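Problem 12. The chain below contains 399 residues. Write out its predicted structure in token notation.
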Amino acid sequence: MLLAACALAAGLLLGCKTDSSKTPVIGTAFAGPIKLNLREEISPASKNIATAKHGEKLEILQIRRRFVRVRTPDGKEGWTDSRNLLSSKQMAELADLADRSKKLPAQGQASVYGLLNMHPEPTRGSTTFYQIQEGMKVDVLAHKLSPKTSPPPNPANNLDLKKAPPRPTKKKKEPEYPPPARPAAPGLPPNWVELSKTRMEEPPPPEPVEPLDPKAKKKKRPRPRPGGPPMEDWTLVRTSDGKAGWVLSRMLVMAIPDEVAQYAEGARITSYFPLAEVNDEGQIKHHWLWTTIREDNVPYEFDSFRVFTYVVKRHRYETAYIERNVEGYYPIQASPGAMPKFSLILREADGKLYKKTWIMEGYMVRKIADEPYSPKASDAPETKSDGIADKLRSLLDGS
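Solution.
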């Protein structure tokens, strides 16, 4: 009996010692990727010792440069990169982005041919919190230009760290004897007025200018190159279950039927809308509106738009209306029906935005309205990244 009691007491002491030896928690964070692997050491060659799911709360134990040692809810500890972690503020912003994106009108659907990473911000350095599967369709909502190279992540941005207690300050001991008095400052020299005068030298005479030879050929000025870092096109998308995030635009393929997409002529389709249904011997076809763009890394969403009509007599699509060399922006509004109507936002030569509306009567398309456009700032969702909120303010127009 005495031996059993001693063994129990030793076990309790050992358990207390184990609990007290745990590394103290210095902050909290949330797992960003769908599956976060935690390694035994900082080196990427070290083995994985634990995993965490997206949104799982982790305890922060140690920080070395941009690497963080965390503890999972089941007590396992491991190292990860700080860009794989999200703070509580970032998690709230991610949920808020998904909630506000529900109000944004879709500019068409897109699919992918492989796994596509979804980011909370339009930057390559941000974490991947979701992956779009091959063949999965998503709603296209917005467009954003972002620098291709992003600065290295700062661990403090993704961590909720506890404030360290202030260090006690030591009081300075007063000297036993006071310091000697400071000597008097030296006076000005007697000729200080002459020394303060500035002597200005006369400028050299201008060089003679040779007269211009009218027969001489003019030298071509070099074309200025665009400055700044290289940019990338990002697209805000929404999944069928309500998740919203940013993906690389070049990885998306708009899900318009191939018999229409073949007329893109090398341009990238940025939006499409069915305008009306047509019955061709039992097969349902549509009249379509689409927008395309040829250049990459531009702030607008399309430089051309076209209306396709399906001609039953010829069993093929034909162009009913087209405009090129425009500067167009989201959102595009289309009202299908017996007399379809659509509106586009275009920037004119005066630099102002105009909302233009067309109506379709049979196979004819004509403009019926042209008015200045000013987006409503209160209708757009806000996001963390600078400039995204301003861009998204133009996505809703009274909806």
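Discussion. Confidence is low (pLDDT under 50) at residues 12-20, 220-225, 377-399. Students who got a different answer should revisit the alignment rule from Section 12.3.
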